[in-house]
Structure formats: C-alpha cells, structure tokens
Model the fold of this input.
Amino acid sequence: MNTLVLTVHGRKIDLLAPRPEDIYWPDVCFSLANINRFTGHTTIPVAQHSVIVCDLVADFAKPHALIHDAKEYAKGDDSTPKQDAEKIAFFEQFPPDVRDMLMKSYPNLKMGREIIEERVDAAIHAAAGLEWPVPPQIVAEIKRADLISLATESRDNLPEQVGDQTIRPITPTIKPMPPTEAQHLFANRLQIMLPALNDGIAA
Done:
C-alpha cells in the first residue's frame, strides 16, 4: 500500500503521518486553485472559496478561516453528500445487531477519511503557527460563513441552491475565477493573514 501523495513541487506527504515540515505553501496554493467545488460540478476553485469564507468571518477567525479547507490540497475534496453516504455505507455492511452495537458502543467512531483529515489539518495548522484544535468559537464562526458561501456558490453556479435552505446567500454573484487568478488571490491573502509565512509562500 502507498500512503504518500506526491505534490507538483516534488514534495511527499504521508497521509497517515503528515508533518508540519512537509507542508509547502506553494503546493497548497497550486492545488487549491485547481480543485473545484461541488465535486467538479462547478468551476469555483477551493482557493477562491477559502478567500470568500475568510471575508465573511469576524477578524478573530480570519487566519483559521483562510486555511479551513487547506487539507484538501493533500487529500482532495469530499462533498457533504459523499461524506454522509460513506458513513451510511460503512454501517450497512454489518448485520443489524452488529451495527446497533457499534453505534451504541462507539458513538464517536470515525471514518478513515476523518482520521486522515484531522492528521493533515493538524500538520497544516502547526506549519501555519495556528492553534489546533481550532477553538470552538472559531469553528462556529467558520461554519456560519461556510454555509453562507455554500448557499451563494450553489445559487449562482448550480441549477439550484443546495444545503440548508434557511441560509440566505449574500447579494453579490459569485463567479468562478480562473485557476491562476485564484492561486494568486489565495497566496496574497496568506501573506496578509499569516505574515510569518511570507518567505515560504512564493514558489
């Protein structure tokens, strides 16, 4: 089995044991600019989405918000429907009695994807010099902004708005940026939000 991800700049990330020193920010910028939201059914780069969420949160949450999806540079984008289906399918493989036992005995049981995400996220936050685990008040603020971004992006780029229909999209229309433009935007915002990284952002 191979758990190493090879990046565009030749770095290798072990998804089971990622290290802060493995995080190369030009890789993050490039990858997020070339991964599209909604499992590729829009052309909105994750890098653009990350900046939108950063703009929607209060100042205290902006650095964390900017990199809230940075883990996707190593493990890819997983939509909410895919995540939900993965969990359902996981439990469906067991007989009902075993399924009930697992759900009752291990209510916090995590999918392999979730474990990998947490490990990559921890390495990224350490590399960025940001607190991990993310404080609950920052998590809540990012979630609020993420839902608004989801509603607006889908309204403007899919046949219909998806997610929580009680969420009101923002007024400006969100138009997809070309990958190169999104990459520069995200890199520039990293320099503003995380100035300590300035020497390591440019490729």
About this structure: The chain has one domain: 4-201. The chain is about 55% helix and 5% strand. Residues 63 and 193 are 5 Å apart (CA to CA).
